[in-house]
Write a structure and sequence with these properties.
five-stranded parallel sheet; 168 residues; 4 helices; 29% helix; alpha/beta
C-alpha cells in the first residue's frame, strides 16, 4: 500500500461494493451483519450503497473467540444486535480485515446461535495473508501481502482510512 490511507480505503470500499452488488441478485432476502468495530463501519457504508436498504445487524464476538485466554477480554465489549430473523435469510457477514480467520469463525458461531441462515457471504474490506483457519472471503475490496511484523489498522467511521502499522 503506497497510496495515501484514505485513497486506499475508498478504493477498497468501492471494489467491495461492486463485488457484493454483483452477488446480490442471487440472494434477494439478504441482511448485513457487521463485526465490531471496523466491520460495522464497513457494513454501514455497504448498507448505504447497496440497492434495497438491507437490514443491518452488529456482532461483538468477544465471548466467542477461541483465543480468549491469550488475548483476554477487550475492555469495550458491546452487545450484539440482530433486529431481524436469521432463519432462512442470506447473510452478508462484513469485517474490515480478514487475517487469521479466527474472528470469522467466532462470528459464524454467534450467528448460528441466533438461527440457521440460508447462506453466509463473507465480505471484507481487506484480505491479507497469514490464515490459520481455512477461511477466505467471497468478496474483498483488496488483497494485500504484509510482513509478519505489519498489520492493517482501519480508522473511522467516516471517513474510513487504512494504514499499515509496524509492530515492535
Amino acid at each position: 500500500m503506497t497510496a495515501s490511507p484514505e485513497y486506499c480505503a475508498s478504493a477498497a470500499l468501492e471494489n467491495l461494493i461492486r463485488s457484493v452488488t454483483d452477488r446480490l441478485p442471487c440472494c434477494p432476502d439478504s441482511a448485513i451483519i457487521g463485526i465490531h468495530t471496523g466491520g460495522v463501519w464497513v457494513a454501514e457504508h455497504l448498507q448505504q450503497q447497496l440497492p434495497g436498504r438491507l437490514p443491518l445487524g452488529t456482532l461483538d464476538i468477544s465471548f466467542y473467540r477461541d483465543d480468549f485466554s491469550h488475548v483476554g477480554l477487550h475492555p469495550e465489549v458491546r452487545p450484539s444486535r440482530i433486529p431481524f430473523d436469521i432463519d432462512g435469510r442470506h447473510i452478508i457477514l462484513v469485517d474490515d480485515v480478514l487475517y487469521t480467520g479466527r474472528t470469522v469463525r467466532a462470528a459464524l458461531s454467534e450467528i448460528f446461535d441466533y438461527g440457521r441462515p440460508a447462506s453466509v457471504l463473507l465480505a471484507v474490506l481487506i484480505q491479507r495473508d497469514g490464515r490459520q483457519l481455512p477461511v477466505t472471503a467471497d468478496c474483498a475490496g483488496d488483497t494485500v501481502k504484509l510482513q509478519d511484523n505489519e498489520q492493517i489498522k482501519l480508522s473511522g467511521p467516516s471517513p474510513l482510512s487504512l494504514e499499515v502499522v509496524r509492530l515492535p
